[in-house]
Amino acid sequence: MSWIGFHGRSAGIAKALGIRSEFITGGTGPAPLRYLRAWRETARLLKRERPSTVIVMQPPIVALLCVAFRTPRSVRIIGDLHTGVFTNPKWKWALALTMRILRRRGSAVVTGAALAERTRAYGVDVLELHDIIDEPIVVSDAPDDPKLATVLEREYVLVPLAYSFDEPVDALLTAAEAAPEVNWVLTGRAPEHVVTRAPENVVFPGFVSRDDYRRLVKSATVMAALTTQEDTMQRVGYEALGEGKALVTSSTAVLREFFADAALYVTPDALSIEKQVREAVRTAQLLRQRMIARRAELEQTQQTQLAALAAVAS
Protein backbone atom coordinates (compact mmCIF):
# COMPACT_ATOMS: atom_id res chain seq x y z
CA MET A 1 0.00 0.00 0.00
CA SER A 2 1.60 3.24 -1.17
CA TRP A 3 0.02 6.68 -1.14
CA ILE A 4 1.79 7.76 -4.31
CA GLY A 5 1.16 7.43 -8.03
CA PHE A 6 3.86 4.83 -8.42
CA HIS A 7 7.05 3.78 -6.66
CA GLY A 8 9.54 1.26 -8.01
CA ARG A 9 10.50 -0.10 -4.60
CA SER A 10 6.89 -0.81 -3.63
CA ALA A 11 6.10 -2.40 -6.99
CA GLY A 12 9.28 -4.48 -6.88
CA ILE A 13 8.64 -5.83 -3.40
CA ALA A 14 5.04 -6.76 -4.28
CA LYS A 15 6.11 -8.51 -7.46
CA ALA A 16 8.88 -10.44 -5.70
CA LEU A 17 6.50 -11.60 -2.97
CA GLY A 18 3.68 -12.40 -5.40
CA ILE A 19 1.24 -9.97 -3.77
CA ARG A 20 -0.75 -6.99 -5.00
CA SER A 21 0.61 -3.47 -5.03
CA GLU A 22 -1.86 -0.63 -4.56
CA PHE A 23 -1.01 2.98 -5.39
CA ILE A 24 -3.41 5.59 -4.09
CA THR A 25 -2.93 9.33 -4.65
CA GLY A 26 -6.14 11.00 -3.54
CA GLY A 27 -6.20 13.02 -6.73
CA THR A 28 -5.14 16.65 -6.93
CA GLY A 29 -5.50 19.67 -4.70
CA PRO A 30 -4.29 20.62 -1.22
CA ALA A 31 -2.68 17.88 0.87
CA PRO A 32 -5.52 17.61 3.44
CA LEU A 33 -8.04 17.05 0.65
CA ARG A 34 -5.83 14.47 -1.08
CA TYR A 35 -5.28 12.61 2.17
CA LEU A 36 -9.01 12.59 2.91
CA ARG A 37 -9.77 11.04 -0.49
CA ALA A 38 -6.90 8.56 -0.13
CA TRP A 39 -8.15 7.59 3.35
CA ARG A 40 -11.61 6.86 2.00
CA GLU A 41 -10.29 4.85 -0.96
CA THR A 42 -7.94 2.88 1.28
CA ALA A 43 -10.70 2.16 3.79
CA ARG A 44 -12.97 0.83 1.02
CA LEU A 45 -10.15 -1.32 -0.34
CA LEU A 46 -9.31 -2.80 3.06
CA LYS A 47 -12.97 -3.55 3.79
CA ARG A 48 -13.37 -5.28 0.44
CA GLU A 49 -10.14 -7.28 0.42
CA ARG A 50 -9.80 -8.13 4.15
CA PRO A 51 -6.01 -8.72 4.03
CA SER A 52 -4.15 -10.61 6.74
CA THR A 53 -1.01 -8.48 6.26
CA VAL A 54 -0.50 -5.00 4.83
CA ILE A 55 2.89 -3.55 3.90
CA VAL A 56 2.59 0.24 4.08
CA MET A 57 5.09 2.61 2.51
CA GLN A 58 6.17 5.35 4.92
CA PRO A 59 5.85 8.32 4.84
CA PRO A 60 3.15 9.63 4.96
CA ILE A 61 2.11 8.76 8.50
CA VAL A 62 -1.53 9.31 7.46
CA ALA A 63 -1.43 6.12 5.36
CA LEU A 64 -0.18 4.10 8.32
CA LEU A 65 -2.85 5.59 10.59
CA CYS A 66 -5.53 4.70 8.05
CA VAL A 67 -4.44 1.07 7.86
CA ALA A 68 -4.15 0.84 11.66
CA PHE A 69 -7.60 2.33 12.28
CA ARG A 70 -9.40 0.54 9.45
CA THR A 71 -8.20 -3.02 10.05
CA PRO A 72 -8.73 -5.45 12.97
CA ARG A 73 -5.82 -5.81 15.42
CA SER A 74 -5.24 -9.31 14.03
CA VAL A 75 -4.03 -7.79 10.74
CA ARG A 76 -0.25 -7.54 10.67
CA ILE A 77 1.15 -4.18 9.53
CA ILE A 78 4.66 -3.97 8.10
CA GLY A 79 5.98 -0.45 7.65
CA ASP A 80 8.32 -0.01 4.70
CA LEU A 81 10.27 2.85 6.25
CA HIS A 82 11.96 5.18 3.80
CA THR A 83 14.70 7.50 5.02
CA GLY A 84 12.29 10.43 5.13
CA VAL A 85 10.63 8.88 8.18
CA PHE A 86 13.84 9.57 10.09
CA THR A 87 15.30 12.68 8.44
CA ASN A 88 12.76 14.67 6.41
CA PRO A 89 11.63 17.74 8.39
CA LYS A 90 8.17 17.26 6.89
CA TRP A 91 7.74 13.83 8.51
CA LYS A 92 10.27 13.14 11.27
CA TRP A 93 7.94 14.70 13.85
CA ALA A 94 5.83 11.53 13.46
CA LEU A 95 8.71 9.09 14.04
CA ALA A 96 7.73 8.09 17.58
CA LEU A 97 4.09 7.56 16.57
CA THR A 98 5.14 5.49 13.56
CA MET A 99 7.25 3.24 15.76
CA ARG A 100 4.54 2.91 18.40
CA ILE A 101 2.04 1.63 15.83
CA LEU A 102 4.50 -0.82 14.30
CA ARG A 103 5.65 -2.08 17.70
CA ARG A 104 2.04 -2.91 18.58
CA ARG A 105 0.81 -4.13 15.20
CA GLY A 106 3.71 -5.70 13.34
CA SER A 107 7.21 -4.87 12.19
CA ALA A 108 9.28 -2.78 9.79
CA VAL A 109 11.48 -3.18 6.75
CA VAL A 110 14.31 -0.74 5.94
CA THR A 111 17.06 -0.48 3.36
CA GLY A 112 20.14 -0.95 5.52
CA ALA A 113 21.84 -1.62 8.84
CA ALA A 114 21.95 1.98 10.07
CA LEU A 115 18.18 2.46 9.76
CA ALA A 116 17.59 -1.02 11.17
CA GLU A 117 19.56 -0.09 14.29
CA ARG A 118 17.56 3.11 14.75
CA THR A 119 14.31 1.16 14.34
CA ARG A 120 15.29 -1.52 16.88
CA ALA A 121 16.01 1.25 19.39
CA TYR A 122 12.23 1.79 19.48
CA GLY A 123 11.59 -1.89 20.18
CA VAL A 124 10.30 -2.63 16.66
CA ASP A 125 11.16 -5.87 14.89
CA VAL A 126 12.87 -4.99 11.63
CA LEU A 127 14.25 -6.63 8.49
CA GLU A 128 16.74 -5.18 6.01
CA LEU A 129 15.83 -5.23 2.33
CA HIS A 130 17.31 -3.10 -0.42
CA ASP A 131 15.18 -2.24 -3.44
CA ILE A 132 14.53 -5.19 -5.71
CA ILE A 133 17.18 -5.51 -8.40
CA ASP A 134 15.11 -5.52 -11.57
CA GLU A 135 16.17 -6.91 -14.89
CA PRO A 136 16.30 -4.23 -17.62
CA ILE A 137 12.93 -3.73 -19.27
CA VAL A 138 13.04 -3.36 -23.03
CA VAL A 139 10.78 -0.66 -24.44
CA SER A 140 10.44 0.63 -27.98
CA ASP A 141 12.84 3.36 -29.04
CA ALA A 142 10.17 5.89 -30.00
CA PRO A 143 9.43 8.08 -26.96
CA ASP A 144 5.91 8.99 -25.85
CA ASP A 145 7.05 12.63 -25.76
CA PRO A 146 8.44 13.51 -29.21
CA LYS A 147 10.61 16.23 -27.67
CA LEU A 148 12.72 13.53 -26.03
CA ALA A 149 13.85 12.12 -29.38
CA THR A 150 16.76 14.58 -29.71
CA VAL A 151 17.77 13.99 -26.07
CA LEU A 152 17.94 10.22 -26.53
CA GLU A 153 20.19 10.58 -29.57
CA ARG A 154 23.01 12.17 -27.55
CA GLU A 155 25.28 11.13 -24.72
CA TYR A 156 24.03 12.54 -21.43
CA VAL A 157 24.14 12.31 -17.66
CA LEU A 158 20.72 11.46 -16.23
CA VAL A 159 19.94 13.09 -12.89
CA PRO A 160 16.45 12.16 -11.63
CA LEU A 161 15.38 14.64 -8.95
CA ALA A 162 12.51 15.26 -6.58
CA TYR A 163 13.94 18.74 -5.77
CA SER A 164 13.88 17.68 -2.14
CA PHE A 165 15.63 19.20 0.85
CA ASP A 166 18.50 16.67 0.65
CA GLU A 167 19.44 17.16 -3.02
CA PRO A 168 22.37 19.52 -3.79
CA VAL A 169 20.64 21.18 -6.74
CA ASP A 170 22.62 24.44 -6.63
CA ALA A 171 25.93 22.58 -6.62
CA LEU A 172 24.69 20.39 -9.45
CA LEU A 173 23.83 23.40 -11.63
CA THR A 174 27.21 25.00 -10.93
CA ALA A 175 28.91 21.74 -11.91
CA ALA A 176 26.91 21.62 -15.15
CA GLU A 177 27.96 25.18 -15.95
CA ALA A 178 31.62 24.25 -15.37
CA ALA A 179 31.33 21.20 -17.68
CA PRO A 180 29.64 22.61 -20.81
CA GLU A 181 30.74 19.65 -22.94
CA VAL A 182 28.49 17.33 -20.89
CA ASN A 183 24.74 17.12 -21.51
CA TRP A 184 22.77 16.97 -18.27
CA VAL A 185 19.16 15.73 -18.13
CA LEU A 186 17.31 16.62 -14.91
CA THR A 187 13.92 14.93 -14.61
CA GLY A 188 11.09 15.78 -12.24
CA ARG A 189 9.06 18.95 -11.72
CA ALA A 190 11.79 21.56 -11.54
CA PRO A 191 10.94 24.83 -9.77
CA GLU A 192 11.02 27.85 -12.03
CA HIS A 193 14.03 29.37 -10.25
CA VAL A 194 16.01 26.20 -10.98
CA VAL A 195 15.13 26.24 -14.67
CA THR A 196 16.01 29.94 -14.93
CA ARG A 197 19.37 29.47 -13.25
CA ALA A 198 20.44 26.44 -15.34
CA PRO A 199 23.03 26.72 -18.17
CA GLU A 200 22.19 25.77 -21.76
CA ASN A 201 23.60 22.24 -21.49
CA VAL A 202 20.91 21.25 -18.96
CA VAL A 203 17.64 19.78 -20.24
CA PHE A 204 14.46 19.64 -18.14
CA PRO A 205 12.07 17.06 -19.67
CA GLY A 206 9.68 17.43 -16.74
CA PHE A 207 7.76 14.57 -15.19
CA VAL A 208 7.96 11.98 -17.95
CA SER A 209 5.87 8.85 -18.50
CA ARG A 210 7.11 5.60 -16.98
CA ASP A 211 8.13 4.23 -20.37
CA ASP A 212 9.94 7.44 -21.29
CA TYR A 213 11.78 7.31 -18.00
CA ARG A 214 12.90 3.76 -18.83
CA ARG A 215 14.08 5.03 -22.20
CA LEU A 216 16.08 7.78 -20.50
CA VAL A 217 17.69 5.25 -18.16
CA LYS A 218 18.42 2.82 -20.99
CA SER A 219 20.11 5.48 -23.16
CA ALA A 220 22.02 7.36 -20.44
CA THR A 221 25.81 7.32 -20.48
CA VAL A 222 25.98 8.03 -16.75
CA MET A 223 23.40 8.28 -13.97
CA ALA A 224 23.77 10.50 -10.91
CA ALA A 225 22.13 9.85 -7.54
CA LEU A 226 22.92 12.68 -5.13
CA THR A 227 21.98 13.32 -1.51
CA THR A 228 23.36 15.34 1.38
CA GLN A 229 22.01 12.90 3.98
CA GLU A 230 23.75 9.93 5.56
CA ASP A 231 21.90 6.58 5.68
CA THR A 232 19.92 7.48 2.54
CA MET A 233 19.75 4.94 -0.24
CA GLN A 234 18.93 6.28 -3.69
CA ARG A 235 16.26 4.80 -5.96
CA VAL A 236 18.29 6.13 -8.90
CA GLY A 237 21.25 4.06 -7.74
CA TYR A 238 19.16 0.91 -7.70
CA GLU A 239 18.00 1.70 -11.24
CA ALA A 240 21.60 2.14 -12.38
CA LEU A 241 22.40 -1.19 -10.76
CA GLY A 242 19.54 -2.97 -12.52
CA GLU A 243 20.42 -1.49 -15.89
CA GLY A 244 24.20 -1.85 -15.46
CA LYS A 245 24.93 1.87 -15.84
CA ALA A 246 27.88 4.02 -14.81
CA LEU A 247 26.91 5.76 -11.56
CA VAL A 248 28.02 8.87 -9.70
CA THR A 249 26.62 9.01 -6.18
CA SER A 250 27.23 10.60 -2.80
CA SER A 251 30.17 9.66 -0.63
CA THR A 252 28.21 8.34 2.34
CA ALA A 253 29.04 5.22 4.28
CA VAL A 254 25.86 3.38 3.27
CA LEU A 255 26.28 4.10 -0.45
CA ARG A 256 29.99 3.24 -0.47
CA GLU A 257 29.29 -0.04 1.27
CA PHE A 258 26.49 -0.94 -1.13
CA PHE A 259 28.08 0.00 -4.45
CA ALA A 260 31.75 -0.62 -3.52
CA ASP A 261 33.98 0.03 -6.56
CA ALA A 262 31.05 0.02 -9.00
CA ALA A 263 30.42 3.78 -8.62
CA LEU A 264 32.27 7.07 -8.36
CA TYR A 265 31.62 9.14 -5.25
CA VAL A 266 31.20 12.86 -4.65
CA THR A 267 30.88 15.30 -1.81
CA PRO A 268 27.88 17.62 -2.28
CA ASP A 269 29.84 20.49 -3.83
CA ALA A 270 30.13 21.66 -7.43
CA LEU A 271 33.83 20.90 -7.92
CA SER A 272 33.50 17.30 -6.75
CA ILE A 273 30.38 16.69 -8.86
CA GLU A 274 31.99 18.21 -11.95
CA LYS A 275 35.20 16.20 -11.56
CA GLN A 276 33.55 12.83 -10.97
CA VAL A 277 30.90 13.22 -13.65
CA ARG A 278 33.59 14.00 -16.21
CA GLU A 279 35.53 10.95 -15.02
CA ALA A 280 32.43 8.76 -15.20
CA VAL A 281 31.75 9.84 -18.78
CA ARG A 282 35.36 9.06 -19.67
CA THR A 283 35.37 5.62 -18.00
CA ALA A 284 31.70 4.69 -18.53
CA GLN A 285 32.44 1.30 -20.07
CA LEU A 286 34.64 0.21 -17.16
CA LEU A 287 32.07 1.40 -14.63
CA ARG A 288 29.32 -0.50 -16.45
CA GLN A 289 31.33 -3.70 -16.19
CA ARG A 290 31.89 -3.15 -12.48
CA MET A 291 28.20 -2.41 -11.92
CA ILE A 292 27.13 -5.63 -13.65
CA ALA A 293 29.57 -7.61 -11.50
CA ARG A 294 28.29 -5.89 -8.34
CA ARG A 295 24.71 -6.66 -9.32
CA ALA A 296 25.49 -10.38 -9.46
CA GLU A 297 26.96 -10.24 -5.93
CA LEU A 298 24.01 -8.36 -4.46
CA GLU A 299 21.35 -10.56 -6.05
CA GLN A 300 22.42 -13.47 -3.86
CA THR A 301 21.99 -11.44 -0.68
CA GLN A 302 18.63 -10.16 -1.84
CA GLN A 303 17.15 -13.64 -2.19
CA THR A 304 17.88 -14.31 1.48
CA GLN A 305 16.32 -10.98 2.50
CA LEU A 306 13.21 -11.63 0.43
CA ALA A 307 12.76 -15.08 1.96
CA ALA A 308 12.86 -13.52 5.44
CA LEU A 309 10.26 -10.89 4.52
CA ALA A 310 8.01 -13.50 2.89
CA ALA A 311 8.09 -15.54 6.10
CA VAL A 312 7.07 -12.51 8.16
CA ALA A 313 4.34 -11.43 5.74
CA SER A 314 2.75 -14.89 5.37
TrEMBL record:
Q: List residues of the Spore protein YkvP/CgeB glycosyl transferase-like domain.
A: 172-298
Q: Could you tell me one molecular function GO term of this UniProt entry?
A: glycosyltransferase activity
Which species does this protein come from? Microbacterium barkeri
Q: What is this protein called?
A: Spore protein YkvP/CgeB glycosyl transferase-like domain-containing protein
Gene3D superfamilies reported in the protein's UniProt record: Glycogen Phosphorylase B (3.40.50.2000)
Task: Enumerate the SUPFAM superfamilies for this protein.
Answer: UDP-Glycosyltransferase/glycogen phosphorylase (SSF53756)
